Amino acid sequence: MMIDEAKIFVRSGDGGDGLIHFRREKYVPRGGPAGGDGGHGGSVVLVVNPKLSTLLSFQQRTHFKADSGSRGGSNNKTGATADDLIIEVPPGTLVRDAETDALLGDLVTADDRLVVVKGGRGGRGNARFKSASRQAPRVAERGEPGEERWLKLELKLIADVGLVGVPNAGKSTLLSVISNARPKIAPYPFTTLEPNLGVITVGDRDLVVADIPGLIEGAHMGVGLGHAFLRHVQRTRLLVHLLNGESPDPLADYNQIMVELSLYDEQLGEKPQIIVYNKMDLPDAEARWEQVRADMKKRGITPLAISAATQQGVQTLVNEIFRVYDTLPVAEPLSEAAEIPVYDMPEDDFVFEIKREGQGVYRVTGKRIERAAAMTYWDYDEAVARFQSILETLGITKALEEAGVEVGDTVFIGDYELEWAN
User: Fold this and answer.
1) Model pTM?
2) Residue in 212, 201, 106 with CA at minimum distance from that of residue 159
3) What is the pLDDT of residue 265?
4) Is there a contact between 200 and 209 (Cβ–Cβ < 8 Å)?
């Protein structure tokens, strides 16, 4: 079954807590701080596995969480860093943020990697806070919380050549004749409900061909699963546009497909095409051929005539596919994803916002300050004092006072409820 869309939840591991510890050894009365740092949390990484061809595995599992780092140890021992969580995806997978629809990456070739959420940093142990004026610091950091988000995965098949046309034009039959593919074939429209891939070979040359299910009017708006099908045409470099010789008006069919391609993506309508008139083994189709060829020539197009069923003209078509393909310029990456090969947090660490949520109640939001709150040991006075210093350094203390905060008011920062004091 061809599954080409999925939605998954990913969460990176928390960093391990830093340790507050002092050396306790015989004959060392002033052992000093010796708390180690916590280990870093694991990131979640998408990696291309060329053996995969569908997103089917994400139908059974949608939530992925990396392990957290270990806590720091005594005697300045750093906690273990967690392994990254590797999620394998097929070549041609587009990764988007499910909330904003922003494109995060385009995974195309084997072993392409995309870090979608980074593991939390390990908290620093109290040994890191020793200074000339503070010889025995009772302060450390908790591990940085991991990140989480929902992702949309979209699979766009990676094929050199795409077979397009109206339903029942004979695309599946043609694919089975020119390649090693064995698609479902029957004499009625919409036999093909998902793309099929095949490989055509001439000498030592191979090309991957995709049979795109039949397109109908309104496909660019999703009619007849149009969106799901047209997506797979975008990566192809050459289109073989198959006309149904049994159709009462093959030229109208051609015009309809060209409109749908252009409305979905302007570049699709401009892709190089080989126009192929199929079913020449049928008397009615053969009778219409000369008129179709004449009308096409008026448009500057020289179509080929074949019968996929009897293989008449098929070898000529295969040779023409390779000839035209060799004249095409080197493929460029998708422009939409070219500038975003890897994921990066765009948010400014130092930006914050203050909202008044009621009488004497304020909420402070911002990546940097929420992270600092989550990494604070609230049971230690020195750690609380350090957090207050961060508030002042970031300008949050001044901003709260300008917003009208008073002693005794409640201030929410992340998951923490604080009572404001001088």
Assistant:
1) 0.68
2) 212
3) 78
4) yes
